[in-house]
Amino acid sequence: MIEKERIDETNIIRGIACLSVVLVHITAGPVTTLKVGSIHSIIFTLLNRGSRFTTPTFIFLSGLTLFYSYEERNFKYGKFLRRRFNATLIPYGIWSIIYFLYFYSQGVYTLSLRTFVENILLANMSYHLYFILTITQFYILFGIFLYGYKRFNSHILLSLSLLFNLLFLKYVSMPYSDRFFMTYIFFFSLGCYVAKNLSIIKKLVVKLRYLLLICYISVVIYDSYLFYQYYILNKAVDVFGVLVIWILFGTISIFLLMSIGIGILEGYTKITNVLKTISKSSYYVYLSHPLILNISDKWLLESGIYSITGRAILNAIIVYSVTLGLSIGYTKLKINIKGRTDMLNKKASI
């Protein structure tokens, strides 16, 4: 059996996306509160808009790694779903309880069982948890993607997923569309497509890396301009056009991140090791960082730090330090405990 090509660059991409999602939430406040047109406002807007590739990227990575793992393996739906749900939904449930208790202590939530259950089912306990509900839908649907991409033309399937995604965004308006799988179906499909055509695409993204960088910068500037027009100046914009730009931005960002990941793997061992470590803990960083950000910002305000820019910088230092430190420490502890348990079980069986 021919050994499959490794895709270690996924760890680099996931590590960068993990750091970026924290940056998105740290810069969100300054974007809407700084003086319009100031240099600080422009910088924070560019940082915020330029980092918003995170949801498409995480969904893409799920499609890529799942299809690549199961393309030539025996796929058992029940076993697959149990493993995914245990790894995803148990931490989600625990952190939903943590957020409920925290926001209850802050007077945001009342002690209501109905509110608690609704917020868990709709992933509404905190603003970032929508992603867990979205990715869970793709886990449920993965068997269909696996069957399709193994048996049919990958180019046609990718084109159809893009068409369905665009039609949904243009013609369907529904509550909680931000956590419905059809909003992101192209990116999961793109992950399966790249896994199916990995060698060709890796060569292509490396060859086009400078063009991808130019396209990324151009789209970020244009998207920031549209954001400024709509949210700051309250001018009308073509909503569907903005969504098309978002899909284009997500796609360009994903391919640019692939080229960066390949480049880092080839020549930057220390950066590779750091990003791999962050990648292993990325889910816990994702779950915990809004809580640390909320606590940090509240503490800085109570300490008399009212400068929006200064507070954002201090929040970045605190949130990155605390969330990365705790998440990486917890992951290593968990791995060590599992290793010792496996060793003891092996000795017991012998």
What does this 3D model show about the protein?
- The structure is a single chain.
- The protein has 350 residues and is mostly helical.
- The chain has one domain.
- It contains 14 helices and no strands.
- It has helices spanning 9-33, 39-50, 54-70, 77-105, 113-121, 130-151, 154-171, 185-196, 198-207, 209-232, 239-267, 269-280, 282-302, 308-349.
- The model has no long low-confidence stretch (mean pLDDT 93).
Radius of gyration, in angstroms, nearest whole number: 21 Å
Count of all domains: 1
Q: Tally the helices: what do you get?
A: 14
Which whole number gives the mean pLDDT? 93
Helix content: over 70%
Instruction: Characterize the largest beta sheet: strand count, sense, and whether it forms a barrel.
Output: none
Shape: globular
Q: How much strand?
A: under 5%
What's the total count of β strands? Answer: 0
Taking the alpha carbons of the first and last residues, their distance comes to: 31 Å
Would you list the SSEs in sequence order as H and E?
HHHHHHHHHHHHHH
User: Which structural class matches the secondary elements?
Assistant: mainly alpha
Which spans of ≥5 residues are poorly predicted at pLDDT below 50? none
GO molecular function, one term: acyltransferase activity
Family: Belongs to the acyltransferase 3 family.
InterPro entries: Acyl_transf_3_dom (IPR002656)
Subcellular location: Cell membrane
